[in-house]
Amino acid sequence: MKKRLMAGALALMMAGSLVACGGGKDTKASSEGESKETTVAEKSESQSGEKKHYKFGYTCMDGTNPFFVTIQDKIKELVEAKGDELIVTDPGNDVTKQISQVEDMLSQKLDGLFMNPVDAQGIIPALDLAKEAGVPMVGFDTEVGDMSYLVSYTGSDNYNAGKVVGEDLVKKAPNGGKIIVLDSPTMQSVVDRTNGFMDAIKDHGFEVVAQQDAKGNLQVAMGIAEDLLQSNPDVVAIFGGNDPTALGALAAANAAGIKKCMIYGVDGSPDIKSELASGNSLIEGTGAQSPVSIAEKAVQIMYDYVEGKQVEARYPVETFLITSDNVAQYGTDGWQ
């Protein structure tokens, strides 16, 4: 009997030992599984926590125009401050070249494109390329021919910029008179400004003796104005679609010895403001805009969009008149 009890006790001890060993194995396996799951989770969290680096493209109609230089510099500053990259191109007012440059940028796997067209309609082939590549475009300053290509647009209220200039001319020349208009039909921003100006002076006794395409360029405007002023030295005013055009007209008027002529531009550039502050210039005023504000808004829109946030179709930026009466509050050493 004693032997049977000892045998039973031994059997129970062995069984307990086996159970204990089995339990230890299961615990180890569970621990290893939890460890592996934790490692995967930590790795996934690390990957999702990494900041994505973006590569954006930038194109504008004329990279030498001080207005666009300011926009480009500000966008580049803001993008690079986030550790991202901005590829900059300058087509020099050549839409064919702009299309080629956009195609080249797209081959570099862009995450987005800041778009300002040389020609609103002519740029469509480039917009098609970007759409096919799935690259979102944020337009700035100048609209494209079909705005559905853009995820959003920001720019000055160009119509109002021309309108406030026209209203100032009506006030200062109540009897009307002959005027010259130097526009740029392929630049939608200038078209809008010209429309605003023309609507403001309508039915106020003004006669447009000449309306020519200055291509938004100082040198081109100067050459055109020189010819026009020879045959129309008695014009009361010249409207330039942007400040470089107005400065070209000023150079031509000064060379021709014109003493009475009100010259207007649109931009609010430091050069124009310096003329207004001088007190002895033919420059009468400018429909001012803020390239700094446009750049800041364009960058905000782009980042909001690529990060999945909702954006509006349009973000207008205020325009206003600067003359010798209020130029001091805006300063002459930079853009507003």
Polypeptide structure, described:
With 336 residues, the protein is an alpha/beta fold. It has 2 domains: 128 residues, 3-Layer(aba) Sandwich (Rossmann fold), CATH 3.40.50; 137 residues, Response regulator (Rossmann fold), CATH 3.40.50. Helices cover 49% and strands 18% of the residues. Strands 2-1-3-4-5-11 form a 6-stranded parallel β-sheet, with helices on both faces. Helix 9 links the parallel strand 9 and strand 10. Helix 2 packs parallel to helix 10 and helix 5 runs parallel beside helix 6. The longest helix is centred in the N-terminal third of the chain and has 48 residues. It is elongated. The N terminus is likely disordered.
Give me a quick take on this structure.
By secondary structure, the protein is an alpha/beta fold.
How many individual β-strands? 12
How much is the average pLDDT? 88
Q: Can you count the helices?
A: 10
Order of helices and strands: HEHEHEHEEHEHEHEHEHEHEE
- Low-pLDDT stretches are 1-47
Structural class: alpha/beta
CATH architecture of the largest domain: 3-Layer(aba) Sandwich
Q: In CATH's first tier, which class of the largest domain applies?
A: Alpha Beta
Total domain units = 2
Q: CATH homologous superfamily name of the largest domain?
A: Response regulator
- The residue fraction in helices comes out at 40-55%
The proportion of strand residues reads 15-25%
Biggest sheet features: 6 strands, parallel
Sequence of strands across the biggest β-sheet: 2-1-3-4-5-11
